[in-house]
């Protein structure tokens, strides 16, 4: 059984540059077998559990939990699940000039198998982009392109023998909040993103960073508000709305509580004498 999200080229602003044909999860199935005589796509897969057998351009290997493999376009792909311990994997099928450029630029020619390569979080983030049905097509294309580039860079680093450690749930939660600073994010949603209950996430995050995710996210929003007050001409109401505060008065009150100044007072204080705005 497979969970598949497919896309059309028209969903991408420049499909000839980067195009995600499909992405998804393959669940354990001992009859699973894929063959491509001369593939027209790049296939990247991360093995969540179980085992498989892969032959790419005449090279055979047996990936298992924690491994990544990259099957480039233009060669034969043949891969199947172990009948005794069929694998579960998360994957993406992509194409475009960016794929070829990164594949060549990072010197990945001839490298198909990357054992013990902790990139599950990147594959999961990639898939989650296309699970958001309301996502803007151009934004989804851009975000998926950036994550694909990050994965290719990580494979290059792994090839060189210095791949960083897999990120902890606390690190992933912090990264998610930093990326979504302008969005409303609650602890339940955040827990789902990193695979923990709200109580577990609160505990591990506080242990790692000395404060709860809520406090961290709030402090980052206020730091962003300070930056917007210093560096833009946005009105206080606009900044409040941009950062996801539904009530301008609540935002101003909270800002005053944390900084000792109102937003307008902070902006006035930060202006240089020559600034006539």
Beginning-to-end CA distance, first to last residue: 61 Å
Helix segment tally: 10
Specify the structural class: alpha+beta
Q: Label the overall shape.
A: elongated
Weakly predicted, low-confidence segments: none
Oligomer, anyone? single chain
- Whole-angstrom Rg: 23 Å
Largest sheet: 6 strands, antiparallel
In words, what does this structure look like?
The protein has 277 residues and is α+β, with helices and mostly antiparallel strands. It is built from 10 helices and 10 strands. The protein has a 6-stranded antiparallel beta sheet. Helix 4 crosses helix 6 and helix 4 runs parallel beside helix 7. The protein is elongated. It starts with a strand and ends in a 7-residue tail after the last helix.
